[in-house]
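Form 12-C: Joint structure prediction
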Amino acid sequence: MPEKFDAIVVGAGPAGTACAYELAKAGVKVLLLERGEYPGSKNVMGGVLYRQMMEDIIPDFHKEAPIERPIVEQRFMMMDKTSAVTFSYKGMEWAQEPYNNFTVLRAKFDQWFAQKAVELGTLLICETVALECIVQNGKVVGVSTDRPDGDLYADVVVLADGVNSLLAKSLGFHKEFRPDEVALATMEILKLDKKIIEDRFNLEEGQGCTIELFGDATKGILGTGFLYTNKDTLSLGVGTLLSGLIKHKIKPYELLEYVKNHPMIRPYVQGAEPQEYLAHLIPEGGYRSMPKVAGDGVLVVGDAAQLVNAIHREGSNLAMTSGRLAAETIIAARERGDYSEQALDAYRQKLMDSFVGQDMKKYKDATHHFDKFPQYFEQYIPMMNRAASKMLTVDGTPKREKQKQIWREIGPAKEKFKIARDVYRAWKVMK
Amino acid sequence: MSETQAAPAKAATIEEKQYLLRFNADTQSHLHVMDPQVCLTSCPDKICTIFCPAEVYKWEDIRMHVGYEGCHECGSCRIGCPHQNIKWVYPKGGHGIVFRLG
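Section 2 - Result
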């Protein structure tokens, strides 16, 4: 008779580990499965980890976790081919406790986090792929794995298997994703001296900065680039909808190289030594792409449940919160001995009542809107750059004349009306 | 010309980028083109050879070469193949790409 667990969690990313941690803390006998050599070895993230949701699980984690830098400034660059209009917020309240967010390197952070779950009693087994959910009488009772005699049984299985979400798909919780529901992100980790990073990004010692890149960073395709500061490396990446790469026939690593050599980016990364190149999908279908998240004996968390707020580049915090809420639900179900879909559906309700569900709903049309109307990235960002250039270039032209020129360049009244309509539409999908 | 423009970017090509990585390749592929005839006759763009971030797919005259050893296991080919002609599973436990940092 194979060993039976109270709970099996598939995937030791932020969602799965958060869930296992909370379950182990409550004395639940939990098995955490990871297909990689170690937790984090298959995981990729731009690098921003939000403090609050992590502290909901481990208070004061930043004092011992392998974090890179607390972020004190967030810049937003609206790029054209040889120019950029940049917005920024920098605040010293972010340079001290309680902090807002930190950059992390996932291979390091995920190992640390999983170790914390192990210390509480989680059994972590790496190098093991969960192949299928074992279903008996319509109820998930375990998973089959690629180990010899690899069938494992539990009262409840938590699917935290990431963006590809193969297990939830095989249960019929969602269909295969479309290329416009996922973004393909590529990233390079670039080694650079600490002091040089601080000089280039205008930072005090140990502080960090993030820059989000819009417009020409993705050659006008829907997506964003990013440049984040780690301790002694930079994370430079670019992500676009897979459908955009297909439509425009663009090689993702060539787009990354284009960003790296862009005149607005090159001065930041010049001389930095590439350490690693990484590619990963990001679920960007939003609320409308969310699968069923609770069934008989099974819950779905994190990227596997498509929990990403693409507009605010949030994902790991949604993942951790979903893992924590799944654990709460399982602990309550365990007390009653009822793991039916009806009982576990409390997880869906908790999720939708939390900021996770609220934000997923708030932006449910955003990605789709900007995908359908490419003019925001293709036309309006270059227009913004031309206007700034004209207005700020001193060449003897009276300012009123410059304003008139900018106004004329936008085009006839019809064009202006179109822009006004697009501004209204953007406000509507973001409000 | 300024010094900034003269300095060539490092790891500029996909081959050089892939050299930065550690792989523990299995002896068997986890990626399979289900019907090679579809690539040959029904897929003029062979778009997987463009969007795959690791250049795993290369068209060789009449057949698709699948360099699974360099796969990042992202899933793009499974989702992006216009003919749903790629069978995609995870490599055996402990195999495939091993990220050290990001």
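Section 3 - Comments
The first strand of chain B starts at residue 22 and ends at 24. The longest helix of chain B spans residues 36-42.
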